[in-house]
Amino acid sequence: MRDLAPAVREVALEVPDWPEHRAGQYVDVRWGTGPDALVRSYSIADAVLTDPNARTCRVELVIQLPADGAAPRANDLASAAPGTRVHVDGPKGERLTWAPGETGDRPLFLVAGGTGLVPLMSVLRAWARAERQGAVRLVHSVRSSAGLLFTEDLAALERSKPFELATVTTREAAPGSPRPAAGRLGALDLELFGWPPALVPECFVCGPPGFVDAVTRMLVQMGHSAACIRTERVVPLDA
């Protein structure tokens, strides 16, 4: 486990007999037994084979912790001790998926709201492992710098690949940001940090429903083809 932010934790599961999957998918996890058992859906942040012979895969998920600092619930995956057995069903979902080669040399434009970054990290990591792919730009919108996720991972990508990251904070000005003040993500941000429609980028948008609807509308108004926009609406993790 590792904490990505004050109330966000990444959990790694060792899953045997892992099937082929695509970046951007999710799994359903059942944790607990009897009347206390819960099934929750989690986007896959990464999935890497650790034992090809047994098809064992290290699957990384991200979990929202109680915002008030309280301990995780007893039947919450975040409270599981190392070695605890859980049931994993998946991978599932096709709305926000990507595989090397399917977009050729076209650039990717990823737009994430809050924890909507999680499945897009899976896309980024698959892209980073591939060869001869188009460049990528990511815009991550968060309330404040405290909500930033995967900061070390993204910094490493910026150093090694043709990747550009822009952070948009809605409630406080981010240090070093080219934006003059905090505020909601707008069309000017998408124009400044994104790709022009003439390059026909493949756009991935993930976040709360209102965020996804607004960003999709702005992208279309800017001239991006709706056929090149993939979306996924998420609710707060463990809501």
Q: Can you describe what's shown?
A:
The protein is 18% helix and 33% strand. With 239 residues, the chain is of the alpha/beta class. The strands form two sheets. Strands 1-2-5-4-3-6 form a six-stranded antiparallel β-sheet, with helices on one face. It has a five-stranded parallel β-sheet with strand order 9-8-7-10-11, sandwiched between helices. The longest helix is centred in the last third of the chain and has 14 residues, at 209-222. The chain is globular and about 50 Å long.
Give structural attributes.
239 residues, alpha/beta, 11 strands, globular
Rg computed from alpha carbons, rounded to a whole number of angstroms: 18 Å
Biggest pleated sheet: 6 strands, antiparallel
H/E element string? EEEEEEEHEHEHEHE
Low-confidence stretches: none
- Side-by-side strand order of the widest sheet: 1-2-5-4-3-6
**Quaternary organization:** single chain
User: What share of the residues lie within helices?
Assistant: 10-25%
Instruction: Write down the overall mean pLDDT.
Output: 85
In a nutshell, what does this entry contain?
It contains four helices and eleven strands. It has 239 residues and is an alpha/beta fold.
Record the SSE blueprint.
Blueprint (H helix, E strand, L loop, with lengths): L1 E4 L2 E8 L10 E6 L6 E14 L4 E9 L22 E6 L15 E6 L3 H13 L6 E7 L8 H10 L2 E7 L17 H7 L8 E6 L1 H14 L6 E5 L6
Parallel strand pairs: 7-8, 7-10, 8-9, 10-11
Antiparallel strand pairs: 1-2, 2-5, 3-4, 3-6, 4-5
